[in-house]
Predict the structure.
Amino acid sequence: MKARRAPRLRQLDVELTERCNNDCVHCCINLPAGDGRARRRELTAAQLDRVFAQAAQLGCLTVRLTGGEPLLREDFKEIYLAARRRGLTVRLSTNGCLLTPALAELLAAVPPLEPVELTAYGRDRGSYERVTRVPGSFARFRAGLDLLAGHRVPFRLKGVLFRGTARARRGFEAWAAKLSGARPELTLLLDLRHRRDSTARDRAIAMRRLTPRQVARTTCADPLFREQMKLFPARYMGPQGDRLFTCSAGTSVCLDAYGRLQPCLLLRDPRLSYDLVRGSLRRALSDFFPRVLAVRAENPDYLRRCARCRLKGFCRQCPARAFIEHGALDRPVDHLCRVARAQAQLLGWPLRGIPPITVDRRAS
Amino acid sequence: MNVQLTGTYRPSRDVVARKIEGEIILVPLAAGMGDLEDELYTLNPTGAAVWRMLDGRRTLRAVAAALAKEYRAAPATVRRDVLGLVAELARRRMVVAVPR
C-alpha cells in the first residue's frame, strides 16, 4: 500500500447521542439514557447519511461513531450501514454493555475496518461499577467483550486512571493485554464537563484527577514516550506565540448529536460551531473554520506564559481545554501546566526560564 | 483463481470504490476481502485504469487491448498485468465474473 496524500477532511467524529446507559463519575458529556428532550433533538439516520455522503465526497476515509453511548440509538444498525455503504471505515467507541449477538454478527459480516474501541472502567465488578454507578454494568460489559471476541471482531481496550487507582495500572494493563492482545490506551487527564453544565460534577471530576506527578510518572514510565520526548522536543518544542490553533482542528472535525459541527471533539464554544443542518461540510471546511480558527490569543496571562513557554511539546493546553476549564480560549490551564513541568522535570529538562504559574483564581 | 482473457468481470457489490486524492481505494463491505496488514486496497494508476474498464461487458482481452493502445505498451505485457490484477481482485471477491 502506498502512502496517501492527506484528504481535505481527514477524519469525522460523529456523536450519535450524548445519552448513556452508564453514569460514570468522571464523564465529561453524558446525559441520562432516558432523556427524552435530548433524544428528540438528535439527528436522524437520514440526516446522518447525508453527512456521510458529504464526508466521502471530501475524501474522508474514517468516521468515528461515539457518544454518549452510540449503541443507545435504536437505529444504530441503519446509521452504521449508511456509513459503511458510503465507503467509510468506522471507529466505533462504545462501553460495550449494549452489544447484542445481532450487533456482533453485523460487525463480523460488515466489518468496521477499524478496531472497535471498548472502554473498560475496571477489571472487576467492584472497580468497574464504582465508576459507572450502574449495578450489573460490569457483567454486561464482559458479555459485550465476549461477543466481540467470539465473533472475531477486532477491538482494543481503553481505560481510565483515577487518583487512588494509579497503583492498579500495571494489573489493569496486563489484564487488558491478555484480553485484546495489545496494551490499553489509558486516559490520564480527565476533562471537566465539555458543556460547562454542572459545577458539582466538575468538582467531582477534579477530585478524581491524578496529581501532576502521578501523570508524569505514568507517562514517563513508558519507554516509547521517553524515546519520543528525546527526539521530538529537541526538534519541535518552542514557544508557539499568540496563535491558538496549531492542531488538526478544522481539518478533522466533530459533529455533535444535534447537528452542530465543532472544530474537534472537545471544543463546544458556540461561537466556533457551525450549523450543519442548514449548511454543508464543504462550506464549513473552506469558509467557516479557516476564518474562526484564525483567532489569536489576547489574554495577557496566556501571552506571558503559554505563548512564551518552550515546554509546548509536553503540554496538553489547547483552546478546547481552556474553554472547558474557563469558558475562554486563551486562558492557561494550571493543571496541564503543572503536568508539563512535572514531565519535563522527570526527563531532566531544565525549567530555568519557564514562565512561572502565578494566576488562576478558579481551582482547575 | 482461473481468470481467462475471454472472461468478463464487474466490480462486486460488496466493495465501494473511492477516489481520494487521485487514487482509487477499494473499501470492502464484507468480511474477508482485505488482508491482515490493511483492509483497504489501493490501486496504482494502471490498476485504476483496469478497474474503470471492468464493466461486465468487455472481455479482459478487450480491456488489455484498449490499455495497450492508450499507454502505447507491449500488448503481451499488458495482458499479463491485467490477468494478474483481475486474478488478485477475484481472489479477494472484489470483482465477480459475468456469465456470457
